[in-house]
Amino acid sequence: MTYLRATDLPAKPAGERFRDLLAQPGILGIPGTHNGLAAQQAKAAGFPACYLSGAAMTASMGLPDLGIITVDEVCFFIRQVTRASGLPVLVDGDTGYGEALNVMNMVRSFEDAGAAAVHIEDQILPKKCGHLNDKKLATAQEMAHKIAAAAHARRHLYIIARTDAAANEGMDGAVARAKLYMEAGADAIFPEAMNTAEMFREFAARMPGTPLLANMTEFGRTPFFTKQEFESFGYKMMIWPVTSLRVTALASQKLYAAIARDGGAHHCVDAMLTRQDLYATIDYAGFEALDETIVKTIIPEAMPQSAL
Q1: Residue 308: predicted pLDDT
Q2: Residue 243: what pLDDT?
Q3: Torsion angles phi and psi, residue 32, rounded to 5
Q4: Model-level pTM?
Q5: Which of 117, 143, 181, 206, by CA, is between 20 and 30 Å from 282?
Q6: Which residues are annotated as catalytic?
């Protein structure tokens, strides 16, 4: 598959393809893919969708996840992942990059870049990772305005409202916010940083019929739960947001230490993806074959001879 060939491109808009996945039975597992190669590897493993985490994007740029990244920078990642994999991608939209008009601009920009879905959170800037302390929240009405703006701007984008209120306002506050966000036009709710199975179950029980997203990030407040466990709690989607970046970053760290220690990477070859496997993942042969079918030497017909 190559995005360069029109016949390989999906016929349906990305948001509709994401909805089709959610219409299927069971929970949709969505792995974080911090670049195009990771997205191709997730697709090869059988995942039908992928996720772009703000924390993973910023960390890959050497930045903290504090709302520093811009809409245009996120769109670069969206284009990279969607072109490489062709999968519908759920994107972390942070706080929407501003107020209502900024949210509308984000939605239009994300759709144009190829996104299928976005989640927007009810923090205020400077925002923090949902699993850190001292998060500051927008009012419920301010967040509802953002959700309404996003719904007004979208053509097909699936809109997920994230609430970080459980830590500050308890379950009652989080549920009240979630209901307001659904009334404002959200398609689904993402309750962030809940820390027990009972909390996940209670939230789902109090939001019957609402598609819910669960976050399985490592080293946070949420204990390790499997896809099957989240499904049993009543959730329709789950993400592993930064997992691919964490694994890749540790491997790189070990590599650079080995080169510095040994004067070369000769002891790390067994940990490398071979040239053959890398080329197979990125479809090197497919691009080369496509180039050969298009770029051919065309010999012009001889110029007609004059009768004189």
Answers
A1: 47
A2: 97
A3: -70, 135
A4: 0.91
A5: 117
A6: 51, 65, 92, 94, 119, 121, 129, 162, 192, 215
